[in-house]
Amino acid sequence: MTPPEPAGSADPAVLQSGGWFDWVIRVRYSETDAQRIVHHANYLVYMEEARTELVRALGVPYKEMEERGCSIVVAGAECSFRASAVFDDLIRVRTRVERVRSREVSFQFRLEDAQNGRLLAEGRTRHVFVDGSGKVITGPEWIVRGLQGDGRPRRFQHRESFASRDPVR
To answer: Are 6 and 50 in contact (CB under 8 A)?
Structure first.
């Protein structure tokens, strides 16, 4: 049986208008508690996965940042829970760059049931740019420009390295 497509997109990796990037995740059994409800800590993991794919889609993958001597590290995270997800649910993690400053970047998240759009959680993360030694630095221009994007909707191809988490093909 083919899994249902998330509302609004047949591709789980799509940059929508308004800068929202959609990434779809299927809840695995290991991510749930004894009642088969997603453990609250996993929402931060889902946000990280979607953020990683967003920056890759914007042309500034973490691996390349690190190879070029820069990283963005989490300086703050928040998540507000609205409803529960359970084992085998499809979750659409909507992610966008909220703000880019000279030394930091923040991301905004909306986690929704991919089948009916019900809001599960909302969150934000704030990151600072650091060099290889962990010292806070001004963000390199190529990263800042990439994170700011151009605001146009685009489609991205999945790479084999992360296709295993792609429940909708």
So the answer is: no
